[in-house]
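User: Run a structure prediction on this.
Assistant: Running it now.
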Amino acid sequence: MKNKTVFACQNCGAQFPKWMGKCPDCQQWNTLVEEAYAEQPATAAQAKGHAAFRQSLRDDSAENRPFRLDEIEEKEGFRFPTAYAELNRVLGGGVVPGSLVLIGGDPGIGKSTILMQGFTGLKELRDRPILYVSGEESAKQIKLRAARLGMKDSNFLVHAENSFEAILETVQKVKPAILIVDSIQTVFSTQVQSAPGSVSQVRECTARLMVTAKTLGVATFLVGHVTKDGSIAGPKVLEHMVDTVLYFEGATHNAYRILRAVKNRFGSTNEIGVFEMTQAGLREVTNPSEIFLQERPVNAAGTVVVSAIEGSRPILVEVQALVSSSNLATPRRTTLGIDHNKVSLLIAVIEKKLGLPLYGHDIFVNVAGGIRLDEPGADLGAALALASSHRNKPLNPKLLVCGEVGLTGEVRRVSQLDLRLSEAEKLGFESAIVPKSSLEALEKSGFKPRKLEIHGVRTLGEAVERVLS
């Protein structure tokens, strides 16, 4: 056995023979940590486990050969639902047995709460238990949380343990339907000579949990810590190893939480679920558009409702803008819930194409409700909110806006316009400003809203003239 020492980056997982202040791969400072491990051949148990994992990925046929695409039988695997319809939506319809799911989020955001409440009282488990492994809290602490959440499930097993070997022994003994590990950074294996939470420990424990999940058919959920920038701590390869990556978003002082899927091998990505944190735990929000708009001010300049598509769901949110004169040499530009660079681009287009002098003003843009808009369909709404605040002229409170704005001031088409307009009609909106190209394609498809008056625009100037003239 030969001992070897390497310096591993705790951010990206890259390994180097000597210490450096800056990681050459991810360009982060002071992330290299010395780790020692022993180069040794795989044990018989490890070899058997990896062989079983490879076999689980093959077809049921006894032949081990390549198959033509038309030879492979197309069938939907079994899923069992959770106690939350919103969680089922994000997972792609329910939990797939043998899947490996990684969920990350800020401390106190509700990761443990959603996993405990989401798997309570499930009849579809057929008397197979749920095993909750905690490496951070004692069994008594978990009991207090369960009592606060009103959980009374005798099928919910709690095991306070950090050793991976002890966890694996318990899994093989109780044969749970669902395994929850909270958190993966606290689990360590005696076969790796480094501290818990290090790159080597996280990678090795996750790899062996993946083998266990695939071999025994146990749906496994891993809770992951996050770094200062909000990404899951540990090597980036961790997200590539699992089947699904979920992020729990939202400010701790805000009651609403967003569960977002950024990777899903069993469903669509960028799907979101909306929850509200209450004293009794998490409560799912079935109509997030109505919740996000319920405190919207009426007849106030600088506010507009935009329609965004999150996965397969249209969501209506309020975009607010405040433009005020500044005495600073460099005016402030502050954004919340929308990309800062995108707002800077829109400001430049407004100044160039509309002639509005925004260079001497402080500008603040906010997406109400704590949600983050990443799609380009919110561009036109943000631009109209800026123009409305600058002119101090309110927009129609029953107006919906969606469209992408280009550098020349053109308004480009958006996807799934019919879903956006249908959601606006349900909530009582009376008119909409949309890209002309999207409206023409929608008219050809035969879609005709009953009460919504739709106006198509080709440029940002047309949109401003229609709603602010």
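The two ends are 80 Å apart (CA to CA).
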